Amino acid sequence: MKALHDVLKKELAAGVLPCGRFGANTVWLRLVLLTHKVLTGLKRFALKPEYLRARPKRLRFRIFCSPGKLVRHVRQSLARLGRQAAEVLEWAEARALLAAPA
């Protein structure tokens, strides 16, 4: 339980409330809890087992904040990513696992 409290407070900003209004702070805390649940589901269902115990900061730097550039050339839009091809394929597999059935 202490680890959950530490992650919520330090890494997902539950310790820094946005203002002095009770309602706004309640909404902020609910968004933090929702973010934690989404990240936990992502780790359990879509990402590799090596990310199962990853903290939000690690996920942010390894997956979410990847350098890239959108390039338009000959009526095409391309994404040039600053990651290895194997990592991009892992992301594609994870996205396919999260796709909702039609």
Write a brief structural summary:
With 102 residues, the protein is mostly helical. Helix content is 56%, strand content 12%. It has two domains: 1-65; 67-102, no CATH class.
Oligomerization: single chain
Total count of helical runs of at least 4 residues: 4
Helix content: 55-70%
Number of domains: 2
Mean pLDDT: 88
Number of separate strands: 2
| Low-confidence sequence ranges | none
Q: Per the principal axes of the C-alpha atoms, what is the gross shape? A: extended
The largest sheet has its strands arranged as: 1-2
Order of helices and strands: HHHEEH
Cα-atom radius of gyration: 17 Å
Distance N to C terminus: 38 Å
Q: How can the largest sheet be summarized?
A: 2 strands, antiparallel
> Approximately how much beta-strand content do the residues carry?
5-15%
Class by alpha and beta content: mainly alpha
Which labels suit this protein?
102 residues; mainly alpha; extended; 2 domains; two-stranded antiparallel sheet
Give a verbal description of the structure:
This protein is mainly α and 102 residues long. It has 2 domains: 1-65; 67-102, no CATH class. 56% of the residues lie in helices and 12% in strands. The protein has helices spanning 2-11, 22-45, 56-64, 85-98, and strands at residues 68-73, 76-81. It has a two-stranded antiparallel sheet with strand order 1-2. Strand 1 (68-73) and strand 2 (76-81) form a beta hairpin.
